[in-house]
Structures are given as structure tokens and as C-alpha cells.
Write a structure and sequence with these properties.
With about 500 residues, the protein is an alpha+beta fold. The protein contains 13 helices and 20 strands. Helix 1 runs parallel beside helix 4. The chain is globular, with a radius of gyration of 23 Å.
Length: about 500
């Protein structure tokens, strides 16, 4: 039952609406500055666009073609900041672009890569180079007609875990994190702030007070404003669906590919989860609820056809073992081509009747600077002064000695000599230095509790439920991990049964 005396309601400095990468990043930044923060998300954390990306930390080489120099510069500057913050879930990767002279001349690509190397300072990532595909390892799976190529550096990220780690950092700095809690409405509070009404997954309704609200609802941001604060925002959103397919691995080396598509888009083919290749993405206008986004047969065929122009081994839709789609909330513009819509972001701040900051657009690589800018503006709006702090702070689990994952993994193998190497590697990648909280003093896998599914033990499930807000098999098998790709079809049922028994025992 809702409290009628508003003075008795909890008071927060800010309520953040949206548990994607931007919302979690903002909550982390704000909580770390000493603000009292509540984050609410209507579904699971990272349930939508923030777990449906191409999983790259990159400047966006193709954005140079659309003169997005400021966006590319900002993203390039962030690459190494992020790589240093979480070397367990993010790491450098070399990308190879086979040259198709019918699409872009070599001189244009060289100029683009020169800009990519020099628009922002590189401290550790190697620069670009022209390569001979007849001699380079990445040339082996390609059709023999491709003789020349280019390689350059960017980074890989486990996008869903990036969201979880930001939410976890926010929580450890005092934030109240509430997944599966919908912001039902916001209304002007007589004391000059907001009255925020929240609805839990069970249907329970409660209210809190907030000095400010941040709308980081991603593809729902415009809808949130139109229903909660009509006329507040100066920007609209253009919803663009990006779809990906996963197939059995098409090559054995560590390089990723960036292919020039016939329609002048680019398609990535990336080593994925050891045994697979991730291929994407598309750009298709999306109408309807972002939660309903699914890959179409036409998108699947398009991705297969485009990679088949390059690889000697052709794939068909029958080879697809998994697919996913996410709706990107891009800034509305006048472009008729979805691929040309800007990936930059805008922040709208209105102060009447109380501070409401709306986040429009953005991309994973720039989430931290977006969050920093948003909290700077929030602090100014509510009249407090706190210095930014996230640029040099590791994310949970990212405090590896020297930032070297391989050194950390070697030390882990020395400490746990009787645990299987593949299990240690997976857990180290997911949890970094915090893997000790799962493994504790385990000598053998028997010390990790019941093996609910092959390689998934009760100790890890306990941690995911008690620390990382996991409540369903989908949370665990597809967002907190990608075990769904590796386990038998009945794995979700086994995990659901464990969760039910865990809840009944609690």
C-alpha cells in the first residue's frame, strides 16, 4: 500500500530510469560522487539493446564516411580507458578488412585509417597497416581473389556484463538497484522535486521522492517523456534494429573481419565464444515495441550473402545456431538511410517543475563519458559540487595486477591446480579478480556444489542470484554468461528447477 504522507517517503538525489549501459553508467558515476541514487529497470539489467550489440569497443571507422569526426575522436579516446578498467571482459582485437576495389578505393581506406590512428592518442593499441592476404593468417579462409587488405586495432567487450559491473559498482557505492521495477509515473512534488511511482514485477506499487530524475530508458526514452513530462525534450528518437547471427566458427585464428557490403555498409565477422563466429549487423527501421525486435528471414539472408562474398566456405540460414536483435535509440535526423543516422548522443535538461535529464542516442564505447557529462549537468542542476572519478577507476573485478589477464589467469591456475582449465578461464573472463568469491577454497569441482548443468555449479549460481540480480534461466544463460550457446537444449529447465528450489529454501 502506498504511503499517503509524502514526508515519510524515501528521498533520493536522483532516480535513474533505465538499466542499460547508459543508465547503469550514470548510476555508478553519481553514486561514486556521494549522491543518493535509485536505479529502476522495467526488465532485467541489459535486457535489450545493451546486450544485443556487436560487442565492440571501437571508434567507429565507418562513421568517418559520414563526417562524424567528433564522435569518432571521443570514442577512440575512450577505447583504452575502458580496456584498462575491465581487462577481464574487454580486450584488444585486430580487425582485417579485405580490399574490394569496386566499393572503395585503397587510397580512401588508407586516409580513413590514418585518421583513425591519429584522431585520438593511442597508448597501447598498435596502428593500422596494409597486409598481403596471400601471406597473412587472416587470408586463409578468404576467397583467393582477395589479395590485399588492411588491419587496425579496436576492442571487444562482453556488453551485458559491462552493464552488470556498472550496476554492481553503483550498488557498492550506495545506490539502490531495482531490476524488474517499472517507473509507472513521475509527478511534481510540492517540495520542488519529483514524486516517482514504481511498480515491481509482482505488481506492488510504491513511491519515492527525488530531487531529480534521469531518463535513460534507451528506446523507450521518448515514450517515457511523452507520458511523464510532455514537451520536456527537444530531441526525438529514431529506432533502428540491428540483428546478428551466430554460426559454427568459420576460421581458427584470432583476427576479426570487417567486410565492405555491396550496399556500402560494413559487416563484422568476429571470433565468438571459442567455437563460433558472430556476424552482424543490419540497420532496419523498427516500428512497434523495442521488446518485440526479432531478426527477419531477409536479415538472415542478407548477412549470409554478404559474408559469402568474402569467405571461401559459404554459409546458409541453416547454419545459424543463434541470432539476436536489438533496437538502437538513435538521434532523429533527416537521413533517409538508417546506416547514416548519427550514433552520437544528446542530453536534454529541463528544470521545471524539477530537474529532468533525458538521454538520447549513444553507443557502448562512449557510455562512460556520457555518464560523466550527465552527472556533471545533474550536479549543477541540484546545486552540488562533486568531481568526476570514473576515468581512472577499475570496474568490479578489473583490478588485475598490471592489467594483464594472462598473468592473472596463470596465477589462478597455480592457486587452483585441480580445477579444469576451461572452467577457470571462463570464470576468470566473467568475474576477473572477484572469481575468488565464487571459488573460495575449492580444491576440486565437488567443492563448488551441485553441477546443475555441465560446467555450471551451484557456487556460481548462488553468486549470480545473491550479487548480480539474476532471477531467471535467461538472465544466467544469455546475459550473465553465454552458456546458452554451449549447453544442451534442456539446460534452461535445469537452471529454472535450481532457482525454484533455491527460492523455496531461502
Amino acid at each position: 500500500m502506498m504511503t499517503t504522507d509524502r514526508s515519510e517517503l524515501p528521498l533520493f538525489d536522483v532516480v535513474v530510469v533505465g538499466g542499460g549501459v547508459n543508465g547503469a553508467g550514470i548510476a555508478r558515476d553519481a553514486a561514486g560522487r556521494g549522491l543518493k541514487v535509485l536505479l529502476c529497470e522495467q526488465h532485467d539489467l541489459a535486457a535489450h539493446a545493451s546486450s544485443s550489440s556487436t560487442k565492440l569497443i571501437h571508434g567507429g571507422l565507418r562513421y568517418l564516411e559520414f563526417m562524424e569526426f567528433n564522435l569518432v575522436r571521443k570514442a577512440l579516446a575512450e577505447r583504452e580507458v575502458l580496456l584498462a578498467a575491465a581487462p577481464h571482459i574487454m580486450y584488444p582485437m585486430r580487425f582485417v578488412m579485405p580490399h574490394d576495389s569496386s566499393l572503395r578505393p585503397a587510397w580512401m581506406i588508407r586516409i580513413g585509417l590514418f585518421l583513425y590512428d591519429h584522431l585520438a592518442r593511442r597508448r597501447s593499441l598498435p596502428g593500422s597497416a596494409q597486409i598481403d592476404l596471400r601471406r597473412h593468417a587472416a587470408g586463409q579462409p578468404l576467397q583467393k581473389s582477395f589479395r590485399k587488405g588492411f588491419e587496425y586495432s579496436d576492442g571487444w567487450v562482453d556488453d551485458a556484463r559491462l552493464v552488470i559491473l556498472n550496476a554492481l559498482s553503483a550498488y557498492e557505492h550506495g545506490a539502490d538497484i531495482r531490476p524488474r521495477t517499472r517507473c509507472q509515473s513521475i509527478a511534481s512534488d510540492k517540495d520542488g522535486g519529483w514524486l516517482v511511482t514504481l511498480e515491481s514485477a509482482s505488481g506492488d506499487v510504491s513511491s519515492v521522492r527525488a530531487r531529480a530524475v534521469i531518463n535513460a530508458a534507451g528506446p523507450w526514452a521518448a515514450l517515457f517523456n511523452s507520458s511523464s513530462a510532455p514537451g520536456a525534450a527537444r530531441h526525438g528518437l529514431r529506432l533502428v534494429k540491428g540483428s546478428h547471427i551466430v554460426v559454427p566458427k568459420l576460421f581458427d585464428h584470432v583476427y576479426a573481419y570487417i567486410f565492405q557490403a555491396a550496399d556500402r555498409r560494413v559487416i563484422f565477422a568476429i571470433p565468438y565464444e571459442d567455437n563460433f563466429t558472430l556476424i552482424g549487423t543490419t540497420d532496419v527501421e523498427h516500428h512497434g515495441s523495442p521488446a518485440d525486435a526479432k531478426i527477419s528471414p531477409e536479415e538472415t539472408r542478407y548477412l549470409c550473402d554478404e559474408v559469402n562474398r568474402y569467405f571461401s566456405r559459404a554459409i546458409t540460414p541453416d547454419d545459424v545456431v543463434h541470432s539476436y536483435s536489438g533496437v538502437r535509440p538513435l538521434l532523429e535526423d533527416e537521413s533517409t538511410d538508417a546506416r547514416a543516422v548519427s550514433r552520437d548522443y544528446a542530453l536534454d535538461l529541463t528544470t521545471t517543475p524539477a530537474p529532468l535529464l533525458s538521454v538520447f542516442g549513444g553507443k557502448i564505447t562512449t557510455y562512460r563519458v556520457l555518464a560523466e557529462e550527465a552527472v556533471n549537468r545533474l550536479c549543477s542542476a541540484i546545486g552540488v559540487t562533486h568531481d568526476p572519478w570514473t576515468a581512472s577507476a577499475p570496474l568490479p573485478g578489473g583490478d588485475l595486477d598490471g592489467g594483464d589477464f594472462d598473468v592473472f589467469l596463470h596465477g589462478l591456475a597455480t592457486r587452483y591446480p585441480h580445477l579444469p582449465a576451461p572452467l577457470l578461464h571462463r570464470l576468470a573472463r566473467a568475474y576477473g579478480s572477484r572469481v575468488i568469491r565464487i571459488l573460495k577454497d575449492a580444491n576440486t569441482t565437488a567443492d563448488l556444489g551441485h553441477e546443475v548443468c555441465p560446467g555450471l555449479f551451484a557456487a556460481e549460481l548462488d553468486y549470480l542470484v545473491s550479487v548480480e540480480w539474476a532471477t531467471t534461466a535467461e538472465d544466467i544463460l544469455w546475459r550473465r554468461s553465454k552458456l546458452g550457446l554451449h549447453l544442451p537444449a534442456d539446460a534452461a529447465g535445469h537452471v529454472d528447477n535450481w532457482l525454484k528450489s533455491h527460492r523455496s529454501a531461502a
